[in-house]
Write a structure and sequence with these properties.
Blueprint (H helix, E strand, L loop, with lengths): L8 E4 L3 H7 L6 E5 L1 H11 L5 E4 L10 H10 L7 E6 L1 H9 L8 H5 L10 E6 L11 E6 L4 E6 L7 E4 L2 H4 L3 H20 L5 H31 L1 H18 L3 H13 L3 H19 L4 H13 L6 H9 L15 H14 L1 H4 L8 H11 L1
Parallel strand pairs: 1-8, 2-3, 2-4, 4-5, 5-8
Antiparallel strand pairs: 6-7
This protein binds fe (ii) ion.
Length: 372
């Protein structure tokens, strides 16, 4: 039975300039960038007639099938043999698709009516320290034709290389940094307690947790300067957490956060944080003696507290970086909690299958109520 895999070669470089020199880019490269990367590094990337897909030219927000079809039109007739993506989760998730032989109609690709055949090299460079998408085989799009988020997870979407460049994350605003790093922390924790976890995945989970929490302790004291100094550590950690959840999966925290994110436009990491302690306190109450016991002891050691105080201690630390809100503060209503619970139980089974203990609809509703 498969235990573990890390497909991309992982590299670290100090600057984007160093990357462009090492990768000898030419017009056979198709480059995908976020608007902010284009502003800062566009001139460095666009030499030699290289075509750049700049996401600033497309509507902001979560990636959709319409965005992918728009890019298909933009690049029609361009001959390329390597895709390079520099950006956040949206840029990377979309760019992955363009390493395939046939992308459009993308709805058919996602519904597996057309096969995913890999035909181009793929190099992914994250500009956040959260999603870990540079090392996973998943692309998530909102399919407007069926009005739902849909994930395509096939090995053809693994990058050949993931390149970590601390220069790209040093300057992200503290709040944006916090939401993405909290997402990575939750990837490491959910993958640790997943029934699919094993000694390989847990080693990555634990290292990521340790680096992120120690990094948060430094940022809580040193603010922006500490964030800049530790940017490389956070990139390592989010990549390691990506490897852990790419193999062992995420679970209820992610599943329960999706409806909040979708209905009240709460950033992904923040929506996860809103669910995190509610889910883990419930796990703890149902089965305190499994993997959660080791997890709590590990976290208590980093946070210098007793094992039974770790959720209080984590919140006390994270609140200094991103204050936690109750669900009603986002405008969530009691009626919505019923819909959220239904959505989680019927549409998020892929994630709910990775829960530390089984959670039924009644328990999910109780967790939402406790966080209300
Ligand atoms: Fe996530």
């Amino acid at each position: 039975m498969k235990q573990f895999s890390v497909i991309p070669v992982i590299k670290m470089m100090d600057t984007v300039e160093e990357f462009t020199k090492e990768y000898s880019m030419d017009k056979k490269d198709l480059v995908f960038v976020s608007g902010s990367v284009y502003k800062r590094f566009g001139s460095l990337l666009s030499r030699e007639g290289i075509h750049i897909v700049n996401f600033a030219n497309y509507p902001k927000g979560e990636p959709t099938d319409l965005l992918v079809e728009g890019i298909c039109k933009e690049i029609a007739g361009i001959d390329y043999d390597r895709v390079i993506a520099i950006g956040g989760g949206t840029v990377i998730d979309v760019a992955k698709l363009f390493s395939l032989e046939k992308v459009s109609p993308v709805v058919d690709l996602f519904q597996k009516k057309i096969p995913a055949i890999r035909s181009k090299k793929l190099v992914l460079i994250p500009t956040t320290c959260g999603t870990g998408s540079e090392v996973t085989n998943i692309s998530i799009l909102e399919l407007t034709t069926i009005n739902s988020k849909f994930g395509l997870a096939v090995d053809e979407l693994y990058a050949d290389e993931a390149v970590l460049i601390p220069e790209l994350v040093k300057d992200i605003p503290l709040k944006f940094f916090a939401t993405s790093a909290i997402d990575a922390l939750i990837h490491s924790i959910e993958s640790y307690t997943s029934p699919k976890a094993n000694a390989f995945t847990q080693a990555y989970s634990l290292q990521a947790m340790s680096m992120i929490l120690k990094g948060f302790q430094a940022v809580a004291k040193g603010g922006d300067e500490a964030k800049r100094r530790l940017a490389g550590n956070f990139l390592y950690a989010s990549c390691m957490a990506g490897i852990a959840f790419g193999n062992a999966g995420c679970a209820a925290v992610h599943a329960m956060s999706y409806p909040l994110g979708a209905t009240h436009h709460v950033p992904h990491g923040e929506a996860n944080y809103a669910m995190f302690t509610g889910v883990y306190k419930t796990y703890q109450a149902i089965d305190p003696d499994g993997a959660i016991k080791d997890l709590n002891a590990f976290l208590a050691d980093i946070l210098s507290c007793e094992s039974d105080q770790i959720y209080v201690a984590i919140e006390a630390l994270l609140d200094q970086i991103l204050p936690k809100k109750a669900l009603h503060e986002y405008g969530v209503t009691q009626e919505e909690l019923v819909t959220y619970t239904e959505t989680v139980m019927t549409q998020q089974t892929r994630l709910m299958n990775n829960n530390y203990v089984e959670l039924d609809g009644e328990t999910v509703m109780e967790i939402y109520q406790s966080l209300f």
